[in-house]
């Protein structure tokens, strides 16, 4: 009889744990959740980026009729008095009176005590796009004329650059011709001169693009990348980026869509991504849900937030930073119609281990 009672007690506890896991809202730590804009003159928006200037937050994205359409330009909004300003187009792909190309993948970067940089691409498609750079001396209110980057350089392809202790700005980049390959574009004078490291993979065993650079307390560098291999892939460097380990799959799923990550001031790593594994024999997986995971070492990850989980449409291409006050800021594509902004207090995140690529509480 006692044995039966113990068995029943254990069974009840397991059921309770399961119910609690499923009942977690996965919203703890979110401070603000809003659209940057409600209505604009163009139907589609995608590939947002965010930075912190001395005047506050600023975000940019590409918008127009549809991705690849020649009318797609780079749009920008600033946070003023805790409100996002109306979007303005800051640059486009007009070449002449009769020729115009689409703009792609803007990336903002605030130079410490310096100019605000805006990298972006222009071209008829990914294979033929070119990298451009603009700068602002007044925190994004006015901008310089676009400057084309040197031949063969694109700047950061999707995710933010990282300034290393030696003064070099490392721009994570990639190419998609003849296999997906990751490389780095480095400037020690914030865009005047450039050098390149990589590619660090051959685009055969692992096909990867759009890396995010993480820094660890011991000085190691780590990248996390989108891939065609059904998992987020990584590589590490213990010599300040001179050499990189063989690119390998992590234990985190990927749907062949963009991710982003940031190294927090407390030493943890934070990842924003779709917790979706591309189905076998498919090229891409669903771009929902959109999730946040946290890690102490960049290897073992814990579930922290579900930003979006509607089965309707897509929630994708996140960009994430940590501001001077310690808050985390994320922007991402909402159904290709709008750009969503989420502010997070990382000290209030409640996380649970991700085991066998399964989000806790899901069967």
Describe this structure in words.
By secondary structure, the chain is mainly beta. The protein has one domain (28-353): Neuraminidase (6 Propeller). 6% of the residues lie in helices and 44% in strands. It has one helix spanning 2-23; strands at residues 30-35, 44-53, 56-64, 73-80, 83-84, 88-91, 102-110, 116-123, 130-136, 147-148, 162-163, 169-175, 181-187, 195-197, 208-215, 221-227, 231-237, 248-253, 260-263, 269-273, 290-295, 301-308, 315-322, 328-334, 338-344, 352-353. Strands 2, 3, 4, 5 and 6 form a 5-stranded antiparallel beta sheet that branches. The relative contact order is 0.13. The model is unreliable at 1-22 (pLDDT under 50).
Give a quick precis of the structure.
6% of the residues lie in helices and 44% in strands. By secondary structure, it is mainly beta. The strands form 6 sheets. Strands 2, 3, 4, 5 and 6 form a 5-stranded antiparallel β-sheet that branches. A 5-stranded antiparallel β-sheet has the order 19-20-21-22-26, with no helix packed on it. It has a 4-stranded antiparallel β-sheet with strand order 1-25-24-23, with no helix packed on it.
